[in-house]
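In the previous chapter we treated chains in isolation. Here, by contrast, the input contains two separate entities that must be folded as one system, with a combined length of 226 residues.
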Amino acid sequence: NAGVTQTPKFQVLKTGQSMTLQCAQDMNHNSMYWYRQDPGMGLRLIYYSASEGTTDKGEVPNGYNVSRLNKREFSLRLESAAPSQTSVYFCASRPAYNSPLHFGNGTRLTVT
Amino acid sequence: QQQVKQSPQSLIVQKGGISIINCAYENTAFDYFPWYQQFPGKGPALLIAIRPDVSEKKEGRFTISFNKSAKQFSLHIMDSQPGDSATYFCAASYSAGGGNKLTFGTGTQLKVEL
C-alpha cells in the first residue's frame, strides 16, 4: 500500500519555467490537498479538491493551477515559476470530513 | 490572518522530561483539532486528535488538553525520548462545508537531549 505518492522528489527551475507536480493516492480518498511548507510559516493550503470533479482555492493560490484528473490523481502546475515559489510542496488526501490527512513525502522545489 | 497560533517555535527538553506545546485558535466553528508529527524529509503524520466535546485525550505518552472557553489546546509529551525529536504542528478544521480544510499552526521544532 503506497499511500500518497508525489513526483518528483526534487526539482530546480529557472525563473519563468513551468512544471507540474504529480500526486496520486491509492486509498480511494475523496478529498485531496496541496500545501506548501516554508520555514516559520507552517503548512499553507494552496488548492484543494473536496471531491472528484471539484477544485477550490486555499490560502495562497496565486501562481498555481490544479487539475483533479480522476479520483486518484491531483496535479499542481506552476505556469511561470518565481523565486518566491521555492518551497517544499506536500500533497495530502483524506477519506471524509474530520478524518486524518495522509501526506506524501513532499517535493522540494528551488526556483533560481 | 493566522487562525491557529502555535508556541513555542522551538523547544529543548531533557530525556524523561515533559514537552508542552500550546495552540490558540480564533474560529469558534472549529470542531476538530489534530496534532501532526513530522520527521526530516518526510510528510507530517497524524499523532493524536481531539474534538471539543472532551477536555482531554490520552494516547500512550501523548496527551491533548482542550480548553473550549479559552480557545486553547495543548500537546503534552510525557517521558520525552530522543526519538520524539521532530517538528510538531497543531491544526484545526470545521465540518460545515468549505472542503473541510485543515488550518495549521506554524510548527514547533522539538529536540530531546540525552
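The two ends of chain B are 38 Å apart (CA to CA). Chain B has a mean pLDDT of 93. Compare these points with the single-chain example from earlier in the chapter.
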